[in-house]
Specification:
This protein has five helices and no strands. The chain is an all-alpha fold and 127 residues long. Helix 1 packs antiparallel against helix 3, helix 3 runs antiparallel to helix 4 and helix 3 packs parallel to helix 5. The longest helix is centred in the middle third of the chain and has 30 residues. The two termini are 23 Å apart. This is MAPEG family protein.
């Protein structure tokens, strides 16, 4: 299995890291799981930003996974290039989460654009 495919697995689990941060950082700490969606929507501050980072991570992961798969299937890109782009994407997502939690809105948006550019790069290197 390639580094890029391992990065897809990491990307799949990153939203759940944000979920744990949101639940622990909530008003009352960890809550029972009878109504977790309502609980997450009721958060504010740091915990709410962790929840929003979780939602964004769920949104972007399918695009990243598809880009990695397309790059592998196209066969035109060097494997090392695909692997490097994947590691850079995971790095950008970690930075994105940090920026979201720290409430650095402008930097967060810039990091988001970098991540989206990295996703597009998989297609360009596969041409």
């Amino acid at each position: 299995m390639t580094v890029a495919l391992w990065c897809v697995l990491i990307a799949i689990f990153l939203p759940y890291l944000c979920t744990v941060i949101a639940k622990i950082g909530g008003r009352f700490g960890l809550r029972d799981n009878h109504d977790p969606r309502d609980f997450l929507e009721s958060l504010d501050g740091f915990a709410r930003r962790a929840h929003w980072a979780q939602l964004n991570s769920f949104e972007v992961t399918p695009a990243f996974a598809a880009a990695v798969i397309v790059a592998h299937l196209a066969g035109n890109a060097e494997l090392v290039t695909i692997n490097v782009l994947s590691v850079l994407f995971i790095t950008s997502r970690l930075l994105y989460i940090i920026c979201y939690l720290a409430d650095w809105a402008t930097l967060r948006s810039l990091v988001w654009f970098v991540g989206m550019g990295l996703i597009a790069s998989f297609f360009f290197v596969s041409i």
